[in-house]
Structure formats: structure tokens, C-alpha cells
């Protein structure tokens, strides 16, 4: 590396550090809500247990405490992450910073942004780090990244792990030398993590496993790809075995009760009204994209065209370098992209007939954690697209960087309106009004002043969640 190259890398790295500091300031300068269910889960994770290590295991496998619906969700990695986040919350309260931010959310989002920057730096080009930095800027201004609060850390973790797997697949396709076959089995670890993080992770694990299978069939007799495909299949088999037998058995062993049945989405809706469900999925996905592109329909369409052009550029390069079919690679790329609206349709089926129906259609889902897993996949596809197009279009590199920065500026401009939407939503209004009362009670070490409690709604009535609020205050109070 020449001295000028080191200086350029140091400059971009310095700008990236400033970006992370600005991201932290943007997130932590707000007062996030305390989700009523979050108060219940945090107090359960932080409850006293006689034996520390055994107590941690019991907390992770306490299906009734970790999901108020009492369904067995088979997502114990999610509970483990939430418990880590709860201890981070407790530590910051003990240090005098009373808040309900998800520190782990910011850490994981920053790690993915760092991954974009590092891969741009690793490209060995002058323009790669700047394109990676531009994508990181845009990603850190996405509404569900900005509007974080302590609740369901696994959503951001699912997006980060899914994006990491997709980027690793792309990197492997860019290597001239074939990887050692035994490294194919290393995919078992991220596959299992994705499967046990969330139901959305289960869906994306299936999509990524199918992508590896397609790539194996396209590229001939690659033992690495064969082993990687088998690793994804083995992880899926482990998950199914866990859902059917091992999970309930472990819960009974540690908790001495049998959990309720596995939560099932209303998948029969896809048989009864397939076009209607797909329409819901695509409508919701476009609404999510619109929120991540400054609320502009035109910019959302341009962003989709950008992703499509990037996919075609990737398929053309791989078909030329690997000697495989252009159509096959294009199919794999666009199948991953289309998996996002299908996942939105699955969320709609999951919430059909419940209060979550309102969340789905009100626009709130587009602003908070529900859409984060899809954004992780889309952000990874955007990074692949920006690098592939930057390689093919030398004169368009700064146009691509400028486009991403414009999206980020529009996202920042939308923050006040999005904040107003969240605060005015019937399902969240009471939580926003309760949060300052909880902060005050924690700071003063007293119960909530019930004369100031807002009128209860049908969603999170105070009387129902009062024991959880009290337990949360007792645990967090200095």
C-alpha cells in the first residue's frame, strides 16, 4: 500500500467513526417509549435466581415469561439476546443513565454498517470505501434503525445475520480460488443462529438455503457448495426436531411445565385468497421501501430499479466468470429480493384477526422493529448492487454515492413526521405517555404516580400491566 492509500483509508475510517457517533447521538437524544410487554420481559430476565448460570438457562427457556401469549415460539436465541440487552439496560441505569434504549440494537446496526464500510475498503479500489460509507450512512438513517427501543432485539439480529450470510455468499462468488470443502460445514453455525432467532429468520434461512442449492447446481461439482447446502439442510432438520420434541422437553426439564403449542400463522389464507395475501405483502413491502427512501414514491421506484440493475450486473459478471447461466444467477438474486414481500404477507397471515392487523395496516410496522429483518436483506442487496454497478460504470460511481446520500438526507428530514405518527398511534400512545412516569418513578425510587396515569386503551391497559411496571421499577431503581 502506498502512503497516499493509507492516508485515504485513514480519512474514510475517520469519517466512519464520526458517522457512528452521529448515529448514536441521533438515536439516544430521543426519549424512546417503554413498551408494556418490554417491561414484562425485562423484569423477567432480571429477576433474582438462586444459581447464576442455571438461572440464566432457566430464564432463556421460560416460554411463558418470554412470550406473554404463552405460545412456544422456538426462538431461544432471541430470548438470550434480549437478556443480554436487559443486563446492558440495568448496567446503564446503575451508572445513572435512565432510559429504555436498546443498546444491543445500536451495536448490531453499527456492526452491519461497519461491514459495509470494511467490504468497500477491502475492494482495493479508491471508490469502494466511499460507496461502502454512503451505504452505511443510508442504512443508519432507516426508520426502524433510528426508532429503536428496548424490545425484541432479535429483529435487528435477524437482519444482520441474514445480511451477513448474503454478503458472504457474494464474497465467495467473487473468489477465484475455490474454498476448501470442509469450510462448507461452517455454514451450519450462522444457519442455526438465524433459525433460532425469529420466525422471520426461519423464512430467510430457507431462502438462503435454496440460494446455495441453486448455486451448487449452477456451478457444477463444487464440494464446498455441496457441503454448504447440506449444512443449511441439516440446520433446518435440527430446528424441526427442536420444535417437535427437544424444545418442549427442555422447557419441561427447566421449568416443570408443558408449553402451549407452537404458534402457527394462518397459512390457510394463502390457499383461500392467494392473490389477496400476495397483494398485502407487496403493498406492505413497497410501503416499507417508501419509508426508507424519505417517504417518496419516486425515490422508492428509483431504488427498486437500482436493485434490479445491480442484480442484472451481478448475474452478468458471474455467468461470464463462472461459465454458468445468466438466467440462473438472476433468478437467485431476484428470488431473494422477492422473499421480502412474501415475508410481509406471512406477517399479515400471522396477525390476521388480532390486534396486530392494525399494526400491519397503520404504517407503524414500517417504522419500527417489524421491518428490520427485511431491511437487512435489502441493505445487503443494495451493497452488492452498488459495488457491481460501480465496477461496470466508472463514471456513475459518484452518482450512486450521491443517490444513497440523498436517500439518507430525506430519511433524516422525515424523522419529525415519523415520530408524530408513532406517538399518535392508538396502540403506542399510552406507552409514550406512561414512559415519563416510569422514568420519574425509577429516578426517585417510588411507585408510579397513578393520578397521572393516562386513560387505559384496549391494547395495553394499565391495570393489566401494572405488576410488570412495578417489577421493572423495582429492578431498575438505584
Structure description:
The protein is mainly α. The chain has one domain. Helices cover 74% and strands 1% of the residues. It has 21 helices and two strands. A two-stranded parallel ribbon has the order 1-2. Helix 6 runs antiparallel to helix 7, helix 6 packs parallel to helix 9 and helix 9 (154-174) runs antiparallel to helix 10. The chain is globular. The model has no long low-confidence stretch (mean pLDDT 86).
What would you say about this model in short?
The protein is mostly helical. It has 21 helices and two strands.
What brief labels describe this structure?
478 residues; mainly alpha; two-stranded parallel ribbon; 2 strands; globular
